[in-house]
Structure formats: structure tokens, C-alpha cells
TrEMBL record:
Top-rank taxon, per record: Bacteria
Pfam family for this entry, one: Epimerase
Protein name (Swiss-Prot/TrEMBL): NAD(P)-dependent oxidoreductase
Domain NAD-dependent epimerase/dehydratase: from-to ranges: 3-240
Length: 340
């Protein structure tokens, strides 16, 4: 099969491309090589094991120029929760219109589509119940809203071709964009550890997340390509480990993966617009459909990320400080902002 991967030169796309080519498939990427994601755009292009069409996923003309594709994986997205609150046009254009065009392309050519959504569509969870695929959407960030609208934009196409929509939890692993302050808290922890700074945790650190290794997500996406959904309603699948990790546990795992032993942890009294307290995926449906289950625990995934990233360029805590400062200036944070 020849598989088109939108956003294919990025973090998840590179892992997926290797998984697919390892199974005998051919891959091609549609990617704009945006500098917020790619510190070395040409290096990312060269690393992709197939051709790379440098174009905008929300440009209909870009899709019209593509031929000879047997399946589409739509990964391209704007993903910064905080940034989405003040760059709404950009996020709407890529995450909604780009997704609609991916669906229209798949429907026009009669080929299967696997689209990446987000756990952000569920909104804030609870500490004692995971999110299930049939739960209602209650996004609390504009990013989550665009991912919910992106799913809705695929409904017409799903009546004509099989569409699998995957909602990953927090994805971590080798290859993340370490310079991007919207990558996530773990890259921020990496930067602080490398600079010998205390780890800064927002709030009391009891917030929970579900961290999935990128290789496990790539394996699930590849399975969905090879086991396409039937036309009709979208086949929705969660992706995660099904276990919770508190931010304090995350900090401890990050320290474990570093050369350091005794690193102080500071708590910052701040809450950013769009942040949630709890997230965890139910994996019941993965079991029901026979999809591959995750092999990495969250702890193993965190340690692997820190050790791989330790000597890589890009991570600097100043970028996260500036991103938080910008949110504060735009009135998108609350709390005292004081450390304790």
C-alpha cells in the first residue's frame, strides 16, 4: 500500500512511517515543515523514508495535486493548548478545514482514512473514571474545540469510506520537538534538569495524565491502516496506557531518567486557560476490536524520553518561561504566579 501521511515529517509521523515501511508499505508525507515544530526542517525531510510534499494541509490545491494513494493518515495539526486560545484562526484553519479536506480526499478516491484527534475533546476528567469513546465532548480549550469540530467534519466522508479516528492521550518519546514550548510539560522538565534548575510543577502536582509512548501510538495507527473501518459512523478509538500518572510522579520519573539524583521540586500557583486536572483513557474498545495494546508503561516511556533527549539540542527552559509570560499578558492565566 502507498500511504499518505499528513504531518508525516513530524514527531509521530516519522515513527509511523518507519512502522509502515517496516511492514512493506510505501509512504509519502504532506507537511509544511513549520519552524515551531521543526528546528531542522531539511533534516526532518531527509529523515522521512519517502517523498515529502511541502505544502499546507488546509490548502485544497495541495490535496488536488496528490495521486496514486491507497490510504491516508491525517496527523497534521496545531497542538498548543494555551496558544490555541489566542491564535484561533490558525487553529481552526488547520484542525478543522485541514481535517475536512483530508476526509474529502479519502472519499473522492474511495480510500480508507485514519485521523488523529485528541483526548482534549473530552475536556476535564475525574480522578476515578477514565474517558470512554462514547462520552460526550466537553472541550475546555479552543484546541479541544477544533479537534471536536474536526471529528464532525469527517462525518460526511465516513458515510462513503471507512474512517478510524484515534484520540491519543499525552504522547511522548524520542523525536519530540524539544524547542517548542507547546510540546508539553515533560520537555519543560528536561530543560530544567539539563540547566540544573528545580523542577517547576503547576499547582499541587496531584493532577493526572495518561502518557503513551509514541511507538505504541504508531503501532495502533499502523494497525488501523491495515484493518480499515467499514463505511458508516467513524470508528473511534482511544490511545493511552489506561493508567494515571500524577505530575509529581512524572517529575520523579524524569529525574530517574536523568543523571541527577536529588532535584528539588517547586510548586507554582498558576493555572493556564485550557488546562485540565485529570485525563485517562479507557482501553476497553481496543480489546474489543483486537487492536494492539500498549507495551510501554508511562514510567518506561518517560525514562526513555529523558535519556534519548539528554544530549539533543533545542530544550531551553526560557522558552517555557516566555510562553507562560505571554499567556499571562493576554489574561489567560490565574493564580498568584508565586513559587512555593
Amino acid at each position: 500500500m502507498k500511504v499518505l501521511i499528513s504531518g508525516g515529517a513530524g514527531f509521530i509521523g516519522q515513527h509511523l512511517a518507519r512502522a509502515l515501511t517496516g511492514s512493506g508499505h510505501e509512504v509519502v508525507a504532506l507537511d509544511n515543515l513549520h519552524p515551531q515544530v521543526h528546528l531542522d526542517p531539511e533534516g526532518a525531510r531527509a529523515a522521512f523514508p519517502g517523498g515529502v510534499l511541502v505544502a499546507d494541509v488546509a490548502d485544497e490545491a495541495a490535496w488536488s495535486a496528490i495521486e496514486g494513494i491507497d490510504a491516508v493518515v491525517h496527523l497534521a495539526a496545531e497542538t498548543g493548548t494555551g496558544q490555541s486560545m489566542y491564535e484561533q484562526d490558525r487553529y481552526r484553519r488547520v484542525n478543522v478545514e485541514g481535517t475536512r479536506l483530508a476526509g474529502a480526499f479519502a472519499a473522492e478516491h474511495g480510500i480508507t482514512l485514519v485521523a488523529l484527534s485528541s483526548r482534549a475533546v473530552y475536556g476535564d476528567g475525574t480522578p476515578d473514571r477514565p474517558s470512554f469513546e462514547d462520552d460526550p465532548h466537553h472541550p475546555v480549550s479552543f484546541y479541544g474545540e477544533t479537534k471536536s469540530l474536526g471529528e464532525a467534519a469527517l462525518e460526511d466522508a465516513a458515510q462513503r469510506v471507512g474512517i478510524t479516528t484515534i484520540r491519543p492521550q499525552n504522547v511522548i518519546g524520542p523525536g519530540q520537538a524539544l524547542h517548542n514550548p507547546y510540546t508539553g510539560v515533560l520537555a519543560a522538565f528536561l530543560a530544567m534538569l539539563r540547566e540544573g534548575r528545580p523542577l517547576t510543577v503547576y499547582g499541587d502536582g496531584t493532577q493526572t495524565r495518561d502518557f503513551i509512548h509514541v511507538q505504541d501510538l504508531a503501532a495502533l495507527i499502523a494497525w488501523a491502516v491495515e484493518h480499515p473501518a467499514e463505511p458508516g459512523a467513524q470508528r473511534i478509538l482511544n490511545a493511552g496506557t489506561g493508567t494515571r500518572t500524577t505530575l509529581l510522579e512524572l517529575a520523579a520519573y524524569a529525574i530517574e531518567g536523568s543523571p541527577h539524583d536529588d532535584v528539588p521540586i517547586e510548586h507554582l500557583d498558576v493555572h493556564r486557560a485550557g488546562d485540565i486536572d485529570h485525563a485517562c483513557a479507557s482501553l476497553d474498545r481496543l480489546t474489543e476490536v483486537g487492536a494492539p495494546m500498549p507495551e510501554w508503561t508511562s514510567r518506561e516511556a518517560v525514562v526513555d524520553f529523558i535519556r534519548w533527549s539528554w544530549d539533543k539540542p533545542g530544550a531551553a527552559s526560557q522558552a517555557w518561561d516566555l510562553a507562560l509570560e505571554e499567556l499571562a499578558q493576554r489574561g489567560l492565566t490565574d493564580g498568584t504566579g508565586s513559587a512555593g
